[in-house]
Each structure stands twice: as structure tokens, then as C-alpha cells.
Predict the structure.
Amino acid sequence: MKALFVSNDPTIFDPASAARARMRAYAVAIGELHIVSTAARSARDEQDGQLSLHPISTWKIFRIRALAKRAHALILEHSIEVVSAQDPFEHGLAALRAAQGTSARLHIQVHTDFLSPWFVRAGNWRSPSVRMPLLNRWRRSIADGVLQRADGIRVVSERVKASLIARHGSKIPEPTVIPVPVDSTVPAPVPLPPHPAFTFALITVGRLEPEKRVEDILAALKLVVKHYPMVGLFVVGDGRQRGNLERMARSLGLADKVVFLKGWRPAAEARGLMESAHAFVQASAYEGYGRTLIEAALARVPIITTDVGIVGEVFKGYEDVLAVPVADPTALSLSIVGIIEDTTVRMELPRHAEETARAHLATIGDIPSRVATDLARLAGA
């Protein structure tokens, strides 16, 4: 089979990256895989076994057109049978336009819960009704049209599948659920930097973007340290919100209680840091899957999380994790206090979560083969 992915992951042009390794595995399973993706201007077309990479460098305003034009040419040149977009938004629109006038089937990947009400809401712990920029509303509108013209859809969780069916019903093909790949090996612990202002370490890991709502964790910490001054937070990750979050920590009087670890960290190192913490905290507004939750469970650290992604589907609240509503710092603070005060919970929660995570991973099977099968079903239709 010959497939083409429309992507936005420039790390695939790094031969040593985890993304390149995944794409190689997909290419072997599929037979012949081409990927069109945005990349640095220095990137060039590459051939890596059965994987062919085609970079696009252009201004964001012209990105959809550039991706569609290059993908359309590749479909015709290589007799591509299935074109798959990494999302139903800009890349889905580019894939739709690329496939028009060809025999290629259109396949859409959905990795995020974009039908969550929080997708179009910014909100924060002070003003939860603030709206997101119009971009996400536009994306949701684009997705509605793209998904209804797709020949196949792949999602990462039952939660996302249910939301799509509830919105579109029989207007879309039934989505296939294939979870996100997660390495089940547990790296060696990585010690957290010792800190003179606290001894009980919380940790959060992920992109510092608005949808991650790290500000809610800071607000919860402010409530906790009034009664438990030995508690502090390590923030692992980078993103557009880093400066805002650093300023917020100072304004809340938490400058000595929050440590923003510098720079990007490899996944193995981030997981090693989790193992050294007393609890993992996540406050995301929405998640399609929630790979970090699986990683935290494998790191055997108690988990406090909002009810998003695979919470309820894989992890059960109060058995595997402590789950709280989105945008509720008070609930987060009470869960943190529960972890601090209840030794049994602190010991049993991670044990159950690890067992659940490993049982879940054991049922997933070989993801590259499942992806190839999903695409081949369309190619043969």
C-alpha cells in the first residue's frame, strides 16, 4: 500500500528523534509512506528506507495551500492510495484539498478532544468565562466539514469517538480507536534538585500551553502551603505560557515554592524525574488521550488529574487516580492534601495505577500494524 501523511512535526527530519523512529515503523508496516510536513528551511527531501520525507517551509498564512499543493503532486506522482491528516483542522483541510481530483481516499486522525467545551474557552482560576481566540472556533468549524467528507477516521480514545458520534452521527464513518504508543519500560529515577524551601515535591510534566491550565496547579498550591509549608512544585516542560506562569508564581508569593526546570527534557528523563516526586499533578482542560498519565503510572507516583482523556476509560477515579473537575483549584488542593495526609492512599494509588496502565498497554497490540490495517481497509474499499 502507498500512503501519504500530512503532518506538522518537524522532528521527523531529525534521524535520531522518537518521531522518526515511529514513522519508520509505520512505513515498514504500510509498505510505502510519504510524509509532507512543515520544517525548517534547511530541511531537504529524504529517503529513509520505505519512508520518504518532503518538507514545506512557508509563512503560516500560506501553509494550508503549500501543504495541499505538495501533497496533491505527490499523490499523482506516486499513485498514493490513502492520504491521512494528523488533525481535522488545518492539516485535514490541506489533505482534503490534496485528495480532490484524485483516486486517493481521505483519512483523518483526531488526537485531541476538540469537542470539549474547554477547547473554545480560555478561562483561568480568576475568570473562567474568558473565551479562547477565534482560532479554535474556526478549527472546530473546519473539522465539521472535513470529517463529514472523510472516508475513514482514527481517534485515540473512546471519549473522543463518543463525542464525534454524538455530534455527527451517521454523517461520518465510525471512528477506529487506536491509542497513542507509550514505551512501557521504566527508566532509572532522576533525582529532583534539592530545595531548601520544601521537602514534599509535586511535579507536573508537559507543554506550558493554555489548555494545560498549569495556573490552576499554582492556585491550588497557594491554598495548600498555608497549612503545609513543606510542599512545593517542580514544573517540567516549556511553552508559550512559561513567562506568565513564572510571573504568577511570584505574584502568589510562591517564588520559593515553585521550580521551573530549564529546557526541554527527553521523555526518559522526564519520567525519571516523576519517579523522584511524591505526587504527579495534571490540570488539563482537555486531552485526547493523556500519555503523560500512563507514564506517571509506570513511574509509580500518585496521580492527581482533571477528568479528561483516558480518565474513566482506562484509569478509575479513587482507585487508580484522584480525578477532579476542570478549572477547580480548590478540588485540586483537597486532593493534594489527601495525598499528603493519607499514607495508605499514597502507597495504594500508584500500585493500582501501574497495574491498570500495564494491563491497558498489553491490550493495545502492535500499533504500526493496526494503523496500517486501518489505512489498508480504505485502500481496498
User: Anything to note?
Assistant: The chain has a mean pLDDT of 94. The chain has two domains: 2-179+365-379, 200-363.
